[in-house]
Recover the amino acids of this structure.
């Protein structure tokens, strides 16, 4: 049982907001993320002291503003409620102050209107590992099923540049990087999210002229050994931070696939050029280019598992 508690800025944008409900336990929390349009509509209704309805991104979920109570009817999620007067006060105060995007933090439960979680089919679930081994593909993306996401992922170098990437998807992808394990949990990496078109063009040059680096979403993963506060030789800390940055990028890549996006990992990079372009002293490890694929393709085949695994008994 959660109660409406507060409003926070969105992760990456000055617009929109995150509405937070809290329960008795610290980790008991519900969050509804509103984009700019949804937030503005809610403000419009509340500031007029009137009642109304705000449709959310998935065209199913909605916010029903009544005189006493405001209900959030959400897909695959219990209905959340807030007292309209409390919500109005919070929303109108929140709107007055300019907000910087909030640093990313993972919460156990967040509701994003466009996510569709498929119900698990027992038969499919039992076959999942076989599906991975045989390399066969199922194009349906189920965000709750890691194995299926792994077995259907395929790199893309041709993006559908006409399709915008939803901001909540970018947030998820960045948040996924933050869940990766890291040496000593020091998270010896940083991510540079390159939105600037000019910088993207320069990154193409720094990536051996690979044209697809100009993707809708471009993330440069950098190593930050100084974050790794462990008493080991500097070469070991450098190695840790390379592994940290690589793992984080891999987590983001999988998250992108889980969200129906595609990506290409760019390892062929001129580190010094990239450092200059993105304005950092940190060494880049890889660039992850993400977008909607212009068409979906099945995964590539791999060597046989028996050739990969060396069993030592
Ligand atoms: C360390 C690493 C470096 C890579 N560098 C590049 C690159 O510079 N350019 C590129 O087009 N693809 C690059 N790739 C993508 C691989 O070519 C791709 O992952 C591989 O062909 C397997 O295809 P799949 O990802 O669809 O399974 C790289 C992948 C990895 C893991």
């Amino acid at each position: 049982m959660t109660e409406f508690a507060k409003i926070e800025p969105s992760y990456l944008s000055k617009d929109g907001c995150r509405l937070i409900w809290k329960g008795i336990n610290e980790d008991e929390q519900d969050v509804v993320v509103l984009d700019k349009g949804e937030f503005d509509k809610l403000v419009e209704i509340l500031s007029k002291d009137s009642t109304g309805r705000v449709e959310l991104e998935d065209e199913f979920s909605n916010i029903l503003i009544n005189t006493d109570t405001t209900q959030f009817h959400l897909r695959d999620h219990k209905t959340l409620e807030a007292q309209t007067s409390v919500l109005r006060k919070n929303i109108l105060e929140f709107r007055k102050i300019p907000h910087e995007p909030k640093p990313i933090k993972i919460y156990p439960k967040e509701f994003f209107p466009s996510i569709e979680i498929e119900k698990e089919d027992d038969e499919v679930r039992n076959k999942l590992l076989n599906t991975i081994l045989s390399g066969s593909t199922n194009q349906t993306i189920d965000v709750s099923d890691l194995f299926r996401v792994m077995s259907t992922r395929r790199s893309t170098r041709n993006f559908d540049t006409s399709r915008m990437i939803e901001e909540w998807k970018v947030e998820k992808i960045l948040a996924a990087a933050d869940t990766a394990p890291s040496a000593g949990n020091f998270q010896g990496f940083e991510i540079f999210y390159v939105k600037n078109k000019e910088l993207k063009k320069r990154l193409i040059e720094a990536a051996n002229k690979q044209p697809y680096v100009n993707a809708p979403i471009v993330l440069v993963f950098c190593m930050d050994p100084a974050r790794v506060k462990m008493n080991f030789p500097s070469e070991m800390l450098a190695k840790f931070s390379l592994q940290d940055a690589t793992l984080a990028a891999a987590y983001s890549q999988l998250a992108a696939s889980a969200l129906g996006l595609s990506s290409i990992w760019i390892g062929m990079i001129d580190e010094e050029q990239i450092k200059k372009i993105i304005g950092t002293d940190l060494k880049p490890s890889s660039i992850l280019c993400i977008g909607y694929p212009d068409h979906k393709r099945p995964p590539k085949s791999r060597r046989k598992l028996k050739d990969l695994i060396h069993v030592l008994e």
